[in-house]
Design brief:
homooctamer; four-stranded mixed β-sheet; 3 domains; Translation Initiation Factor IF3; 10 helices; Rossmann fold
């Protein structure tokens, strides 16, 4: 702004021109204001993630290449085989030097410039109660890693054998993790148990496991919402992305 | 039947009389058949329990006196102060020598002939997770006792402190209880935990505790239905009567 | 422990060694404590059952061979054709002498060492209301048998013809079963009727039969939860495994 | 119409007048058409019933007096003490010779001209499963009687003692009732049982009895909707008015 | 019984034989009692209908041939192409002279002896609101016809054009139908409208049409349950069989 | 901005001062931007309405006086007797010349400067199906009037007598109303019927009337959402305020 | 009518003939009355739209050709590939000069006479929150256009970036649209935000996007129903047709 | 342990005594293991909070005095007037020097030793959308403060005026809060908006505000679960305690 005024003072620009330039700058500022959250999002290290479900593979591939070109990598969730093929095809067509990594369990596709590395800002813990909960856990892991977390996982733990919980929990606490994500289906009791044992924020993720009344993760979600253990918060059924992002925010803050 | 035929053969009764007597006996049998469950109920030791809610105190008192006169005692569930007063008034009016015992916590009234004693056929365990679950637990206890169970209770146990569970469970297992009733509200995880630790049938009773989504015992019920622990069956929210009666049936069978 | 002390007293081991050995033993005890429920589970005769749904056939086959090797048999529930093929293939590859028995109706696979026999500890009854309830009933039967029960089944009984219920019930009562499992879909009234007629614990299992409001077993489950008949407890919709395991626990206790 | 044309032909009215009169008649017909259902309602014998809940007692009393004046009687449902007082007060003020009959159990008020009698067109049966179902049953009875039905009631019948059902059912069938209303709360199995035993249309009415999941009549309603017994239709929870009116329509048709 | 006594009196049979024969007769009576509802069902003209869904085609075909052999015809509901093929194959194999009639819209299969005719006992009306409701309506029609009803259908009526309702309703009323079945999906208002216009019992059948909140017939069912029009009762969503059977019972009674 | 530049050009202010003044103006603009919706709300004529439920009477009175002072009037919804008293007391204390008008049926309080008049921008129609729907309708009326609508009401219309609908609808259409609000409880069919008859936007408001399944307005809301009639949109159960405000927006736009 | 009277007066027709002709005319009027809503529908410009789901392609094609022949065009919603093929085949067979336009995203088929143009009566706005909401938005657009609206769309707006909303909203307000349709899934907050910013009626359409609890558009619908923003009304989940028709009615009225 | 061995080696204790002492120590260790979470809870600074609802005031007072005596303070949530009186009475009786502070809005009672101070470990933010959300927010605040948080509150923010959100958010971000709690009822959009603007973990708390479908906080909870904004986790409706405790855990970790 000073620059404009200076040029105006020196007669380089007329009052009309000065006025106009100032207005333009003002508009630019307004636009900046509008974009403030975009910048903020960038700064937080939680990038926009492409949700593939309900989108056409073509569209997914377009977005993936655009994202990866702009900021070094793109992450796609809820992706299928067709999406991977389309993304690979597009990467070939565009002749960009991108690595395409499909996590079949998590159903995520990570597209990144060859050599791109995610910084490691801090650690989180990730516990899954049963085999069927692993897809959700893996989705959370991939998201958290992309957001700069080192993720310590323990997937062989279950309420039926609470004792199997002791060792991994001690490991996580000793590693000073900033948060622990606990994925559980069926009756969803594990996050409550974990939250009652550690002094770390615990994020419960109900997995869509179970049948009959309360099936598809509903009983698990309700249990977590009703939990007696303080220090437990939840995300929606199967929302690995949300859990990973939340845990990453905890890491960010721990280190500020 | 032979007797009738014999009397007919000996000319004591005519063919018409024989025919009629045989028909009457046949009808009596049909009626017996119809009453089979009444007798059975009596034999099982699970008496009809008077559900006071939705009935007028006057009506409750009538039934109570009738039951107690007929079989020595009457048990009323979901009773209020007004019911107790009415029952006492009726007992006074009828000049019967009945004891009236109001359990304020369980909201039960036990009316019994002075000196009447319930036999002790076997033991059951009864565990409550929190203070607010005690009314339901007490209802179950009273019903089970009336049905001939000795009830070993442990009301200071909760999921938040699983360790507090070890001692009472060992006691119950050592006492060789025929079944364990576990009352729990909120997330209702306790019955699952108990069922995973003992080789005794466990009956989960959700208590109408908790608020928000899944409140009023709904999350607890769903958790128990979704339980991973084998050997857990449930009754409806707050159904202490049903749990007590079920446990009593387990006792009956253990001893047959 | 005494042994260690003795060796220490006799100078066989130094104080450091004694101390270390005692610590190791202490840790071993802690681990034993942690494993207590595993042993217990084993002792109760209710083995871990492999839930195939949501697992890959490869994984299912791995677990099956491991279980069968360790304890003589493995039971898989909610299994499909692919799982059977994979299990058979694995058994062939491993060159183990296992029988693989696929119950197409129950969708269970039983893998056991040739000649392995399940002991018979006692009897339970199993009643199904309609043709469509048989898969759930069969699942319960297989589980109960594996847990040591002799199962008396009656699959041709329905609420529409209550009279058809009399004969099988009498048979069950006479056989002195420790519990009766009753599977019913639609309005789910049968378990209530059975519980009102016998002095045996009755376990209601809603079957996922029915359409429209209350369909998929919901009306059946709610009916059972609301039942007026004392001595009825329920497991979740379609939970044949849970019902079989619960009944087995009743058998165990009857015989202790 | 002919009359108008005749008068026009005879010069008694001008073409304009004829035209106008014909239009007026046409409009009158249109209005008659619009009112056709009112007449029909009257003809069917199912009068408008005043629903007191949510109305002020004053308003209720106004409507009651108006109805009773117009057609000899008025029926008010869901009425309270205040409504009765207000109706009586109004009847006194208006100095009309009306009888006011408050059915405390059914919560209905019947206002009728002294000496007014309801015709008896045919019979229906009315069965209630438990004490707590009687208010709904009584509402249905009062409505059906006002609609010209003789109502044969049996209020001491319950699923817990199916045998108690045989005698009253035989009585109803012998009386050749046009329909049977069955009121039931809790698990609501009674209407199914009745419908499986008789060749009469059965109308199930869930009563708002029961607690926990499926409570307040929900399990009962779902059970009835899921019923395997053909020939059972239902009305909403506690809708004695609807059941009474439906049964009355069956009577009407039987006699046409 | 007299006969037995007579033979005993005449020495034709010994006292043991007489006793035994009398017992046998008594048992036969008990069995008759048990079978009373079967006979009743037969007498009511509402035959057992084979529900194909959840049964194997082979089983369906077995039942169909058995039914048709026993009483002249068999009706199968919720049948698919595979069921028809299997039934036809079985009929061919058994070399019985049965006609097999598949109603593709109603998804019913009618198997009957060639020349078998259903008697016509009376009329019912059947109205469907929209094209998508016709499958349910057709199921109701087939069932009602098998039960002896002449069915007057009107399938081109909808709430959007209430005027289209007038003519068919008048026709039904003039034909003196014993009941009117009204099938409607979406907001389900048509049965209420019909019930407010006629003095005939109206049976509402919600069709599983509609999407979003209240979809799949739920809004329709709730609307019908909440209906202000007296004289409307409902069956579950898509329950054409139940509606047809109920209407048939109305016909039966009208003609008794 | 030009002014600042001019003053800078004329040496009245230094470059620092100019720069600062320009920044301040820029910030002022940003703030204006933030306030844009407040102004807009004011311009649309839909004022903020004070929701009394869950607020203390004292608080309500404070807000009412503040609003009325600032813009001439205040409207309070869901108000009780205590709120009216408190508002009157406050008005007396503050010695402001305000009229306080309590609509007991709508449960609204209108506080306005004596002589304040709402402009009449256009007309809307308002139809209620039954007596119990009038409170909701009145709330909508009061809100719409405050927003500048002339409201033509018709409260004696119901689905049970569709013919009664014709006249009021014609009146509304002839009055050229911008929208019609239709309040209905129970099965909620009226808005669908109205929307199928007129070419005016129809806003359905479910009233919390009805009992049993679908009661408290739920069936009505679902019916309206499932409506076959195009041109019907809904607000939540009992949301008279929302309906009135929406209709007012329609009026505003018609007249622009 | 006058004409008939005249001919009667002049002796051209007898009194019987006059009488009959007048009756016929009267009936014709009655029929006209019955058809009044059809005409009205036509006049409103909101044509009947063919809902393809649940109809056979053959049937859809029949209706499409009939509609297009009668009024120049036909619109089919929820159409699939098979429907398009069948419609095209039918158009070929019938040798009519119709254009068939399939909107793959909206799943609509527009069949119209070559050269037929829809008039433009006014403008509406249409906003979609995310990519997955576009199919619903497109359905609304097609319907609104057929009803005479010019539709200004903005599909790249989302709650995550509220700032992106400002520009399109200003454009819509400046274009003086009669209503704004806002489609949103997930948490469904966008319509509330829009309604709080503009003085135009806003129609919220929940899209069936989202998973877990509140998924498939349920959370979005509930949010919109609970909205604090006045001037927001909603249609059911995914109901693009209803939203388009409602907006069209707003346009019609603005211009009257 | 070494000590025991040493004493044994020096003959101070016999082998039996050594053995016994070692066993006792082993048991003590086991007990310590069991108590590990109690200590942990203590160490985390999240004390047990007394939930008054469903407990008798007497019981609440007992617990309060016990807690305060043991660790310096006691916190009671969901407390009523009667609880406060009882607590005060008890404090007087016990003659302990405790301050009793009742927060009428939060419905919490804080009992603490005179002079006891809570340490301040870090800051959290707390935002409430509307006046009716303040009770929940206050509960969260009190809990967080007891857990060592300094709480920056902003209670005058709402979705209707998003601009009012900017200033408080900037303040919170600048204060470097470890987490932000956002309480919101109705449509519950505010937490999503906040989470999309800041790089701090956001905890959404639905408030039990709102009516009709989705009322009592259900729509708010579902919205938060469906949120598009990453980094949002939720606790149950009205669970201020849970939110406060979770935020406190975030503070603890930030500072480790």
């Amino acid at each position: 702004m000073e620059e404009i005024l200076r040029r105006f003072a020196q007669g380089e620009i007329s009052i009309e021109e000065a006025c106009k330039e100032l207005k333009v700058e003002s508009i630019r500022k307004l636009k900046d204001f509008a974009r403030i959250d975009v910048n903020r999002l960038h700064r937080t290290g939680i990038p926009e993630i492409i949700f593939a479900e309900g989108k056409r593979s073509r569209e997914v591939a377009d977005l993936a290449v655009a994202h990866a070109t702009a900021r070094g990598f793109a992450l796609i969730s809820r992706a299928g085989e067709k999406d991977v093929e389309e993304v690979k095809k597009r990467v070939d067509e565009e002749k960009v030097d991108f690595e395409v990594d499909y996590n079949e369990v998590a159903r995520t596709i990570l597209v990144k410039k060859r050599g791109y590395n995610f910084e490691k800002r801090g650690k989180i813990g990730l516990i899954a109660a049963g085999t069927a909960d692993i897809p959700v856990a893996e989705e959370a892991r991939v998201v958290a890693e992309v957001c700069g977390c080192e993720v310590l996982t323990s997937y062989d733990v279950g309420i039926a054998g609470i004792h199997r919980l002791v060792a991994p929990l001690e490991e996580l606490v000793n590693a000073d993790v900033a948060a622990i994500i606990v994925v559980a289906g069926m009756e969803g009791a594990l996050p409550s148990v974990v939250a009652s044992l550690v002094d770390v924020p615990v994020i419960g993720v109900p997995a869509s496991v179970g049948y009959g009344l309360g099936g598809e993760g509903r009983a698990a979600l309700l249990s977590m919402l009703q939990s007696c253990s303080p220090g437990l918060a939840v995300v929606n059924i199967g929302n690995g992305v949300g859990a990973g992002a939340f845990a990453a925010k905890c890491v960010l803050h721990k280190n500020r």
